[in-house]
Every structure is written in C-alpha cells, then in structure tokens.
C-alpha cells in the first residue's frame, strides 16, 4: 500500500467524500482483487466529489470507484482496495475501478491523465498479489453495450513515456576579493567540486560579476505530445447497434438451437428480460423470457415465439439504453 502513497500526484480523500448514512460497502481481501477496470465519467467535467454525491443520491453507500483521475492528472484515492464498491455489477467483488474524468465519446484523456493512469496501473500491478488483467468496462460480460471507457486504454498503458533529461545549473556571482576558497566557505561547496564544475575558469583570475557554477541538477521533464483534437477522435462502433444489426429476422421458438438463438438470448439479458445462459438453446428460460416480452405489447405471440413484433419491441428497448 505504501507504493500508492509514493505517487506524487495521488491524494487520499477516502474519509473526505460524502457517504450514505448508516450504509457501507462490503469488503473482501486484497487477494480476491484480480482485475483493474477502466471507466470514463461520461461527463465533460466533474470530480470525485461530484461523482460521490451522484452515487449517494442513487442510494449507494458511497462513490463507486476506487480511484478517480482528474483532468489535471490528480489521482484521487476514493475507496480501500478491498472495498466491493458498485461499478461493474456482478463483477464488483474481484475488480478495482479506475475512472478518468471526461466524456471520451467526443474528448480524449489529457496527457496528464494518461501519465497518471500509467503510473497508477504499474503500482497496482505490483500491489495486487493475484493480479490477472486490466479491462475496459464494456469488455466485461453483460456490459458489452456500455460506451465505456471509449478510448484505447491499452495503447495508453503501453506508450513509452516521453521523458527528456534537462540539465539545470545553480550559479554564484563573484564579488570583489573572492577566491575559490572564500566562495567555498560561503556556499559549502568544496574547492575541488568548484574546480570540477568550472574546468574553463582560471581560479587566479576571478573577476567581480563573473558567474561560476556551484551545482548541477539533472531533471526529468515530460515532453507533452499535442492534444488530439476531438474531431480526430476515432469513431467507435456502438455495441448495441452491432447487436441490433445481428438480431434474427426469422421466427424462433422452443427447441431451436444455434447462433440466432444465442444473439436473441444476449439481447434479452441486455434489456433485463433475463433468460440465463447465452448458450444458443431455446429452452424453458428463454421461452419464459420471450413470453414476458410478448406480454408487453398488443398482438404479442402468447405461445412464446420470437417473431417480427418481438424483434421490434426488443430493438426499441435496446435503443432506450443508448439515450
């Protein structure tokens, strides 16, 4: 855990964020946390405090993320790593949530956010004893329709840091009567070091106003790449549109098997008409789910068959999720 606090831009706000009175998240062990999940906030602006207020207003015990990376690169530490907070549904137990503030459907993460994400990721990989993988929110089963995180986090994590080594020097201005020995007494820098730092200076010919080096500093400085304009943001194919385009046109009924049934099952689960496993078998659970769908509109097939009307209703519910 101490590795986290070694990150200069990390701020621990775990006990400062709003929480819901009388409620708290469950905890697990650090060994159970195996995955790091990347999110974006879906808001052009915001902060960990704003997200915490929103989550509490939804009835949650507190903020859903473990970390929020703000647009200036500040990493806000929001929940203990062992906390089972709400950010990926059934996957919460084994996942740690990292949210970058921004709407990456139209924006790109700032260079500061990218740098902080790389730094935090490297630390977490070392801290988690059973770390397995990092994923985007929409890469988890059941959340394929989510437009999150909407940027190529894998590329960001593998980018090499653009670091330039810069040399800075600290100077001393020679005064009347100065010698290297008196300068050494004033600055605490040995005569030997002064000679090494100033090989072209004649110690017997020092002049008032002359500047000599008393210290050299080597600094690492990030060379920032120009921000990518939003109009160059790659257009990402919407997973819901993908699913809609695959919905079968033919009639499906109890006993059918195959890819068309599997796609139907995926759509049913996505609109919360749960049918269990997406195994391509039109069994009893799928039949029950289709019957429930058909009861939602007039003229629905009471026998639980999937037909054109069923398809149109499912499409309407899927499109609602895109709003």
From TrEMBL:
Q: Which SMART domains match?
A: Ami_2, LysM, PGRP
Q: Give the SUPFAM superfamilies listed for this entry.
A: LysM domain (SSF54106), N-acetylmuramoyl-L-alanine amidase-like (SSF55846), PGBD-like (SSF47090)
- The Enzyme Commission number assigned here is 3.5.1.28
The answer to whether the entry has keyword Cytoplasm is no
InterPro entries found in the cross-reference section: Amidase/PGRP_sf, Amidase_domain, LysM, LysM_dom_sf, Peptidoglycan-bd-like, PGBD-like_sf, PGBDSf, PGRP
Task: State whether keyword Glycoprotein applies.
Answer: no
One Gene Ontology term of the biological-process aspect is: peptidoglycan catabolic process
Per UniProt, the keywords (alphabetical) are: Hydrolase
Say which enzyme class the record assigns. hydrolase
LysM domain sequence ranges: 170-214
Give GO MF terms, alphabetically: N-acetylmuramoyl-L-alanine amidase activity; zinc ion binding
Task: List residues traversing the bilayer.
Answer: none
Q: Cross-referenced PANTHER family, in alphabetical order?
A: PEPTIDOGLYCAN RECOGNITION PROTEIN, PEPTIDOGLYCAN-RECOGNITION PROTEIN LC-RELATED
The family assignment reads: Belongs to the N-acetylmuramoyl-L-alanine amidase 2 family.
Protein name per UniProt:
N-acetylmuramoyl-L-alanine amidase
User: Which organism is this entry from?
Assistant: Anoxybacillus gonensis
């Amino acid at each position: 855990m101490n590795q986290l606090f070694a990150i200069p831009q990390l701020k621990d706000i775990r006990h400062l964020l709003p929480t819901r009175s009388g409620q708290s998240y469950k905890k697990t062990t650090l060994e159970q946390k195996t995955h790091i999940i990347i999110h974006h906030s879906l808001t052009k602006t915001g902060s960990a405090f704003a997200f915490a207020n929103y989550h509490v207003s939804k009835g949650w015990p507190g903020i859903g993320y473990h970390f929020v990376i703000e647009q200036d690169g500040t990493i806000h530490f929001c929940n203990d790593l062992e906390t089972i907070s709400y950010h990926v549904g059934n996957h919460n137990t084994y996942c740690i949530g990292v949210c970058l503030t921004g709407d990456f459907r139209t924006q790109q993460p700032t260079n500061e956010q990218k740098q902080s994400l790389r730094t935090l990721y490297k630390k977490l990989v070392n801290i988690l004893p059973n770390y397995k993988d990092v994923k985007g929110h929409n890469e988890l089963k059941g959340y394929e329709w989510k437009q999150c995180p909407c940027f190529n986090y894998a590329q960001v994590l593998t980018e090499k840091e653009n670091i330039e080594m810069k040399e800075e020097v600290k100077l001393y201005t020679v005064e009347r009567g100065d010698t290297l020995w008196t300068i050494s007494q004033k600055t605490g820098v040995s005569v030997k070091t002064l000679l090494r730092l100033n090989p072209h200076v004649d110690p017997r010919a020092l002049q008032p106003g002359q500047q000599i080096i008393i210290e050299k500093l080597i600094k690492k400085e990030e060379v920032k790449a120009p921000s990518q304009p939003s109009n160059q943001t790659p257009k990402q194919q919407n997973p819901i549109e993908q699913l809609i385009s695959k919905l079968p046109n033919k009639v499906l009924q109890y006993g059918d098997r195959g890819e068309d049934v599997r796609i139907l099952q995926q759509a049913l689960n996505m609109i919360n008409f749960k049918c269990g496993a997406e195994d391509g078998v039109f069994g009893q659970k799928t039949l029950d789910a289709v019957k429930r769908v058909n009861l939602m509109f007039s003229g629905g097939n009471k026998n639980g068959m999937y037909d054109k009307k069923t398809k149109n209703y499912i499409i309407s519910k899927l499109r609602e999720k895109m709003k």
